[in-house]
Amino acid sequence: MRKGIPKILITGGAGFIGSAFVRLLAQKGVYSSDGKSLSIIDNLTYAGDLKRLEGVKGKFKFYKTNICNKKQIDLIFAKERPEIVVHFAAESHVDRSIKDATVFIQTNIQGTQILMDAARKYGIKKFIFISTDEVYGEIANGQFDEGSLIKPNSPYAASKAAADLLVQSYIRTYNFPAIIIRPSNNYGPWQYPEKLIPLAILRILNGAKVPVYGRGLNVREWLYVDDCVQGILAIIKKGKTGEIYNLGSACESRNIDTVKLLLKNLGVSSKRFEFVKDRLGHDLRYSLDSRKLFKELRFKPKVKLAAGLKTTVNWSIKHQAWLKSKLRDINKLYK
Ligand code: NAD
Ligand code: TDX
Fold first, then answer.
1. What is the pTM of this model?
2. Which of 9, 11, 17, 110 to mutate for ligand 1's pocket (most ligand atoms within 8 Å of CB)?
3. Dmax (CA) of the chain
4. What value, to the nearest 5°, has the Cα angle with vertex 190 and ends 187 and 193?
5. Separation of CA 162 and ligand 1 centre (Å)
6. What is the predicted pLDDT for the residue at 28?
7. Cα(first)–Cα(last) distance of the chain, in Å?
8. pLDDT of residue 16
């Protein structure tokens, strides 16, 4: 390891946000060029894809391992002796959790416990848990701050909330040096096209319509993925262990407006959507009060929704072969 560079272990580094974080570290040179101080654990589920890391090949060690495999995780920690763990790995899609919650309970809850136990055993300095705004549940007016009650509504959100609480219990019980980050809805290049924005783009590229749940009145706070990973890095550098940080963008938008903006960027008719059956238990609105991050750590996301969508559409058109390669899986999910 090069002097001054901490050994970092990233779980879920082949996923959408995890890979953006790895690319950011590469860009900032926050690891040694021999690839010895950065390791990734990812078992490459349907959502994992090493294509996202092709631009930074050779800069990291890769372990294709399930975070629920206690024995393997212990061996990796014994070998790598990481100082910082950034834990992204999760089952991340609400609609899949509504179909079957089993793997969500295993990966999101048990996987987090196994990682934390290994981190304790091998004396980790910082454990960053990537939670979500969904742990708070929905809010019609106002915003959630870090002290708000946790009241998740979907099986996905409940599994993340359980893990979030487990991390809090380790902080209290063992003085475990964890930081919890709760980002809002991410979007941007390389997102798996099961989520609203890349799914909408994929449907249009295939000559179909965008499915909008219910009447499209649900509100999400959209955070461009590059802003998200820069925020995470700022929190790793300046945040306090034992603390929770909301990471939102203040860019709220109703789904119908988000879809119409996308259609405009794609240069197709604003009518290329259809209202479809609503999601079960669909959360109406997420909204984060991120002043703790903005003021205490002086980090603020930069990319506004209109600009972020434009970049995402341009990237998607260039990478449509990648998006279309997921079509069969998406058609199975949404049949
Ligand atoms: P993703 O689904 O794109 O990626 C998840 C990655 O984890 C994949 O590479 C997958 O192969 C890996 N993985 C899944 N189960 C695993 C297991 N058992 N063992 C090892 N690896 C496993 O997810 P994402 O959108 O990049 O989200 C990353 C994290 O951020 C998640 O914890 C998610 O809950 C959280 N989050 C996501 C968003 C969002 O809008 N996408 C918002 C807030 C928080
Ligand atoms: O086809 C669709 N039509 C539609 O109207 C899909 C897939 C979604 N929607 C709606 C549901 C939501 O109101 O769009 C909104 C966004 O949906 P998703 O992209 O599935 O995201 P969401 O359910 O809000 O959860 C996301 O944000 C928090 C991520 O998937 C989570 O991983 C993260 O924790």
1. 0.98
2. 17
3. 57
4. 75
5. 16
6. 85
7. 49
8. 99
Helix (H/G/I), strand (E/B), else coil: 256: helix
Burial class of residue 115 in the structure, from the number of CB atoms within 10 Å of its CB (0-12 exposed, 13-18 middle, 19+ buried)? buried
Q: Which residues are CB-contacts of 44 (< 8 A; sequence separation ≥ 6)?
A: 14, 50, 64
| Continuous segment of H or E residues that includes residue 253 | strand 252-254
Which token pair is 33? Answer: 């060029």
- 3-state secondary structure (DSSP) of residue 139: coil
Domain ranges of the chain: 8-184+225-247
63, 156, 192, 245: which is the annotated catalytic residue?
Answer: 156
Ligand 2 site residues, Cβ closer than 6 angstroms: 92-94, 132, 134, 185, 195-196, 199, 211-213, 218, 220, 255, 279
The closest of 112, 109, 65, 108 to 85, measured between CA atoms, is: 112
**Into which CATH architecture does domain 8-184+225-247 fall?**
3-Layer(aba) Sandwich (3.40)
pLDDT of amino acid 31: 66
Residue nearest to atom 13 of ligand 2 (CA): 218
Q: Can you give 27-64 as a three-state secondary structure string?
A: HHCCCCCCCCCEEEECCCCCCCCHHHHHHHCCCCEEEC
CA distances from 18 to 11, 52, 214, 229 (A): 7, 10, 31, 8
Cα(199)–Cα(51) distance, rounded to whole angstroms? 19
Residue 123, amino acid: G
The stretches in the chain having pLDDT less than 50 are 1-2
pLDDT at 30: 74
Q: Read out DSSP for 90-121?
A: S---HHHHHH--HHHIIIIIIHHHHHHHHHHH
Annotation says 31 is catalytic: no
